[in-house]
Amino acid sequence: MFIQVQETPNPLTLKFLPGEPVLGPGRGTMDFTSVSAAKRSPLALQLFRVDGVKSIFFGEDFITVTKADEETDWAVMKPEIFATIMDFLQTGKAIVNDGEVPDGPMDTMIHPEDDDTVAMIKELLESRVKPMVQEDGGDIIYKGFHDGIVHLKLKGSCTGCPSSLVTLKSGIKNMLQFYVPEVVDVIEVKDEEDLVIESALEKMEKNFSGTPD
């Protein structure tokens, strides 16, 4: 088995391609931002045992690994990540637990109650934006359209990536506005889990630095 590795726009993230399906075609993506979340996947749990791993992301045929900080050396981490992925895949076990594999990209599924504007936004995100973003080891999740503003959540290599906000504000916003004049702006949103994790990390940093709350 030969596992390819690709750099992403995010210097803290690498994309690993094992040469075989991870989630498989049409299944969407899965984001594991904590050990608790990784309980849905035996492989994700094992990857979290690699020192320095902050989060794991699965796509159709790739695995994205994000490290904790710039000081953590990829040269030390990569051999262990390679070995973990290779050893697991050779067992033939399911990468994700039964019932946990997504049926597809639910966020861009068009529902009967969606008006023409929302349906067009979802179609553009699914057909034009997601393939481009997933090529870089990440994903963008549609979270809503309110008062002319498209709400998107960044995942995988997009999370915390300096260039992602530029892509969000220039590329994606301009493309959506070209086809959907009703779009005024595009913003990043975070869910409750993201805020909890960020708060915990901030507390850890303060504890290490000795800074009082």
TrEMBL record:
What is the protein's major site of localization?
A: mitochondrion
> In Gene Ontology terms, what is one molecular function of this protein?
iron-sulfur cluster binding
GO biological process terms, alphabetically, are: iron-sulfur cluster assembly
Q: Where in the cell is it found?
A: Mitochondrion
| Domain Scaffold protein Nfu/NifU N-terminal, residue spans | 3-92
Name the keywords, alphabetized.
Iron, Iron-sulfur, Metal-binding, Mitochondrion, Transit peptide
Q: Which GO terms describe its cellular component?
A: mitochondrion
Task of the protein: Molecular scaffold for [Fe-S] cluster assembly of mitochondrial iron-sulfur proteins.
What PANTHER family does the annotation carry?
Answer: IRON-SULFUR CLUSTER SCAFFOLD PROTEIN NFU-RELATED (PTHR11178), NFU1 IRON-SULFUR CLUSTER SCAFFOLD HOMOLOG, MITOCHONDRIAL (PTHR11178:SF1)
Which family is annotated?
Belongs to the NifU family.
Name the chain's protein: NFU1 iron-sulfur cluster scaffold homolog, mitochondrial
